[in-house]
Design goal:
Nucleotide_cyclase; 15 strands; alpha/beta; Rossmann fold; Alpha-Beta Plaits; elongated; seven-stranded mixed sheet; AAA family ATPase; five-stranded parallel sheet; A/G_cyclase
Length: about 1050
């Protein structure tokens, strides 16, 4: 026994702990959630039997029947829960969970049928009667106590009810098995389909199968040994070296291969043996956890395989020497797995036999699953190694680390003995195995990265996760296959009470935790019943129960259930569950009431340690959820809900301010899920969530949220934010400016720097669209000051990106514009990827204007990488647009056209009309420059369809009219072409953008040249050249000069 307070061992009759003085009075065991297998076995025709037999005889027959069934249950490790009339209810998984409880239950059910038949032999002969039974088996979750001594073993619920209904639907001598049991038992069960059953109390049909047999649980049948073997080159080499050493020294050696369940010990030994070049005498046996086997049965299995193998001529010559040893073994070990006539004689015979075989070739003897071996078998193996010191015998034992609990020194610390530890596969080999398993799986769907990560390098875990990727487990949860649930639950269930209590609490903290956090949580949990939990200690103070938590963590580390992450100088050592699956199974085993309590205590602990709103909120949210599921809808539950929503909103807004859209979306959606529309706090969560949805391309969801924010019933500032955001998302530019100008005074009066940033940047962007970059600069400068005060990264990035646009399109010369861009990046970029993205785009084009092609493309490479990590939907339009501009300036029209097409497709998908218009105009310009006027016309709306200077911003209108003028002249409409060219020039001259004005002048030069008006063409081209040169736009200036020179030359020719 151990003290419940400190974990110190205590005498069985102790009233107080000798270490800490705590009372040793037994405490009620905690409720626990388990996945168990329930078996119902009922007599058929008991009424007729009672009429045929005297009551005393009937009672004796019934007791014999009960005893026979009980024996079958207990032989397979189950527990008889209760007797109900003539029915027996048995449970497998209470009080002890076994990894193969479902298979055990099926084996017990078959044994019940056999036991009843054996009973019938005597009953028929003596009384002329026969008993007949029917059996139902089902697997699923229950809530129970884990302590049998309290007799609190009542198991009820749907799992039990379905098992009872299956039994009632079974025929005489039949066993009906539920689908969850079949999944948990794996391929060992042979069944025949029965079809869906309509059972009382269930709306949906129940899938059932008739059990025919349970096959031997050979790992090769239960595991995918048919797929190509992956990895383990180092371990195979070490086994090969061990065999070489045995052969060279002619001396026996014991090698114990340790590893957790499923890590691949059996497969490794089989693959190594199959790949041996050296001829060996080989025999293998396996220990089993239950069943009617002799104490040395695994050794008998291995020796039998040795004797059945090919014998060398040398061994045949020594047959007389072997004959006596074989006779002894056949009288006991090889007959029934027992050491008959004695252990001494059996060991002597084994030594003689193995030594004789080893004279011909090395002997390899494998004993698998030694953690289930009895003490006698381990003693015999130990003795064999000692007495075969002059024989080339390699004894390979495979075991889980549980073996060291019984035999701490096994496999090391003695001559001719060594151990190998088999760890999980490295990530690259896990991925390779996943690909192989997916190829042979039934569904062949893509393997989620989470499956590879969750498996933690364990091949069996990975195999099961992939095999059941599309199917639910026995409790309806698709994330954990029933085989893994059972395997890991058995590992956890085998822990001593102190270790189990620590592991339970750790599972509430999550995959990662610290010893100090766990100690504080254990201290809070250890408060006296009926009193508030102890005050949570501030970070850095010693844990009240460090004496129990830290040693328990050390023992859990040895069992590979948790692992220390590093050895920091600080006392608060971090730990991690060895696998997320271990944490998941441990957490699932906790009763919901305990989960709610632990989560609330964890929230208090983390609040005191200032661990962050998101972590605290997560615990509060779980506490609220479980209280609601338990029906505890009271004031305290409501307090948990509102507090969780408040913290989720705050942490989500902070994530959004850091441009972490994925995390912000999860946190804010979590807050909204806890609130009802119109409830206090709903708007504060809905507004930033709408921003996230719009930014990530989920526009309709974002707009729905914005429309739901009322102008009344929430703060004026919140309403103003909603109106502005809705205008930005849905209204034309003019209306956006109106909304910005209308909401700006609201933000100013409230001192809302975020709102002022947003309003001023929208006003500035409208000025940019009108080509008034000088005026826009003033608004952007003020917006940047407000953005710096908000510490909101997206708003800072938007402002700086807008400044970059003005540096590109505005009057600032390229050299000074590039320098200013770089200064802004140095001041604001740094750890802000959004800033580096929004400034990097215009900087790339500015570098291209100066013909720094390597710099421009390097800048674009950085931009693409940043865009991939940030997940802003608009990046799928903006980045290709800027990249296409660079390629166009570089004289690579095909590459530019492909990028413009990609941008247009993304803009169309997002409903970004302004960006779509820009992409289509640039595509048209490329086609016109290449001489494809019909192709260009397909990208532009006709003038009759609208879209001239009225609805379009001035800069865009000038661009569009210039292109239409070129289309008109190509179609022979000279008057229209001249008019449109003049209108484009006039609109452009109203801007302060040398790029817009130069482009309009260049379009006019091309039109006049086509019309044969060489003088006006030369003048317009000269004007474009001057504007491009003033900007530092080298490709544009060169093209304008070429056009001017050509027009002047043609004009001179005409004059002559």
């Amino acid at each position: 026994m151990h003290c419940a307070s400190c974990g110190h061992p205590t005498p069985a009759d102790a009233r107080f702990c000798p270490r800490c003085g705590s009372s040793c009075a037994p405490t009620a065991p905690p409720e626990e959630r388990r996945v168990v297998t329930v078996v119902f076995c009922d007599l058929v025709g008991s009424t007729a039997l009672s009429g045929a037999l005297d009551p005393e005889t009937l009672r004796a027959v019934t007791l014999d029947y009960f005893e026979a069934v009980r024996g079958c249950v207990e032989d397979f490790g189950g527990t008889v829960e209760k007797f109900i009339g003539d029915a027996v209810m048995a449970v497998f998984g209470i009080p002890v969970i076994h990894e193969d409880d479902a298979r055990r239950a099926l084996g017990a059910a078959l044994a019940m049928l056999a036991a009843v038949e054996e009973l019938n032999t005597g009953l028929n002969a003596s009384l002329g009667v026969r008993l007949q039974v029917r059996i139902g088996v089902n697997t699923g979750p229950v809530v129970t106590s884990s302590d049998v001594s309290t007799r609190q073993k009542l198991v009820s619920g749907e799992t039990v009810n379905v098992a009872a209904r299956l039994e009632q639907n079974a025929g005489r001598g039949e066993i009906l098995v539920g689908e969850p049991t079949l999944l948990a038992a794996g391929s060992a069960a042979r069944v025949a389909p029965v079809g869906p059953l309509r059972v009382k109390g269930k709306e949906d049909p129940v899938t059932a199968h008739r059990l025919l047999a349970v096959e031997e649980d050979d790992p090769e049948r239960l595991r995918r040994f048919d797929v190509p073997y992956v990895g383990r080159a180092r371990e195979r080499a070490e086994l090969g070296l061990a065999l070489d050493g045995v052969a060279a020294d002619e001396s026996a050696q014991l090698v114990t291969l340790y590893g957790e369940a499923g890590v691949g010990k059996t497969r490794l030994l089989r693959e190594w043996h199959a790949g041996l070049d050296t001829p060996v005498a080989f025999g293998a046996g396996r220990c089993r956890p239950y069943g009617d086997h002799g104490s040395l049965a695994p050794l008998a299995e291995a020796v039998r395989q040795l004797l059945d193998g090919p014998m060398s001529p040398a061994c045949t010559a020594e047959r007389a020497e072997v004959r006596g040893a074989t006779a002894v073994l056949e009288a006991g070990l090889l007959r029934d797995g027992t050491p008959s006539p004695s252990v001494e004689d059996t060991c002597s015979a084994l030594v003689a036999l193995l030594a004789a075989l080893a004279r011909a070739r090395p002997v390899v003897l494998v004993i698998d699953d030694c953690h289930w071996a009895g003490e006698l078998l381990m003693d015999v193996l130990d003795r064999l190694v000692e007495e075969l010191d002059l024989s080339a015998v390699l004894l390979l034992c495979a075991a889980r680390l549980d073996l060291l609990d019984r035999r701490p020194g096994w496999g090391s610390g003695r001559p001719r003995s060594r151990s190998l530890m088999l760890s999980g596969l490295p990530p690259e080999e896990s991925e390779a195995l996943a690909a192989v398993l997916t190829e042979v799986s039934a569904h062949r769907s893509a393997v989620p990265a989470r499956a590879v990560e969750a498996a933690g390098g364990n091949p069996f875990y990975l195999e099961q996760l992939i095999a059941t990727a599309d199917g639910p487990g026995p409790d309806g949860d698709a994330s954990l296959p029933p085989s893994l649930q059972a395997l890991l639950a058995a590992r956890v269930d085998a822990l001593e009470r102190p270790e189990r209590a620590v592991l339970d609490l750790a599972s509430v903290l999550g995959r990662d935790f610290t010893a100090d956090e766990l100690g504080a949580l254990a201290a809070a949990e250890g408060a006296e019943p009926g009193r508030e939990a102890r005050e949570v200690r501030p970070e850095g103070t010693a844990a009240a129960d460090d004496g129990s938590v830290r040693p328990a963590l050390t023992r859990l580390s040895r069992r590979r259930l948790v692992q220390p992450l590093r050895r920091p100088a600080a006392e608060d050592r971090p730990y991690r569950f060895s696998s997320g699956l271990v944490q998941e199974v441990t957490y699932r085993s906790l009763a919901k009431r305990a989960r709610a309590r632990h989560h609330e205590q964890a929230a208090a602990l983390l609040t005191a340690r200032r661990a962050g709103d998101a972590r605290v909120a997560d615990h509060l949210r779980h506490a609220y959820r479980y209280r609601v599921e338990l029906g505890l809808r009271d004031e305290h539950t409501e307090t948990l809900r509102h507090r969780a929503a408040e913290l989720l909103t705050r942490s989500g807004a902070l994530a959004l301010a850091r441009a972490d859209l994925a995390r912000a979306g999860v946190l804010l959606q979590g807050a909204l899920d806890l609130l009802t529309e119109g409830e206090d706090g709903w708007t504060r969560a809905a507004l930033p969530l709408a921003e996230v949805r719009l930014a990530t391309g989920r526009s309709e969801e974002g707009l729905d949220l914005l429309r739901a924010v009322p102008d009344r019933g929430c703060a004026p500032v919140e309403a103003a934010h909603a109106r502005l955001a809705l205008a930005v998302a849905t209204a034309p530019p003019g209306e956006v400016v109106a909304a910005a100008e209308e909401t700006l005074p609201v933000f100013e009066s409230a001192g809302d720097h975020l709102g002022q940033t947003r309003a001023r940047v929208r006003i500035a962007q409208e000025l940019q669209l009108q080509g008034r970059h000088g005026r826009a600069d003033g608004q952007l400068t003020r917006a940047l000051r407000h953005a710096e005060l908000t510490r909101a990264e997206p708003e800072r990035a938007v402002v700086l990106g807008a400044i970059g646009i003005s540096l590109w399109r505005g009057p600032e010369p390229v050299d000074t514009a590039v320098a200013r861009c770089r200064d802004l990046l140095a001041a604001h970029g740094g750890p802000r990827p959004t800033v580096r993205l929004t400034l990097g785009c215009p900087l790339a084009v500015l570098l291209a204007l100066g013909e720094d092609w390597s710099g421009a493309r390097s800048c674009l490479d950085d931009v693409r990488r940043l865009a991939e990590g940030l997940h802003y939907a608009e990046s799928s339009v903006v980045v290709p647009l800027f990249a296409a501009s660079v390629e166009s300036l570089a004289g690579r029209p095909l590459e530019a056209a492909a990028l413009f097409a990609r941008a247009a497709a993304a803009a169309r998908r997002l409903g970004a009309d302004a960006l779509l218009g820009a992409a289509r105009r640039e595509s048209a310009r490329l086609l016109l420059d290449g001489g494809d006027a019909p192709g260009a016309a397909g990208h532009l709306p006709s003038e009759r369809a609208g879209g001239t200077t009225g609805p379009l911003p001035r800069a865009d209108a000038a661009d569009l009219d210039g292109l239409r003028a070129r289309l008109a002249v190509a179609a022979g409409r000279s008057g229209e072409a001249a008019r449109l060219a003049e209108r484009a020039r006039a609109a452009a001259e109203e801007t302060d953008s040398p790029v817009v004005r130069a482009t309009a002048a260049l379009d006019a030069a091309l039109v006049f040249g086509e019309l044969g008006d060489w003088a006006r063409a030369a003048h317009a081209a000269g004007r474009a050249r001057a504007l491009f040169r003033a900007k530092g736009h080298l490709p544009g200036a060169r093209r304008a000069e070429e056009l001017r020179a050509r027009a002047a030359a043609r004009g001179a020719e005409v004059a002559r």
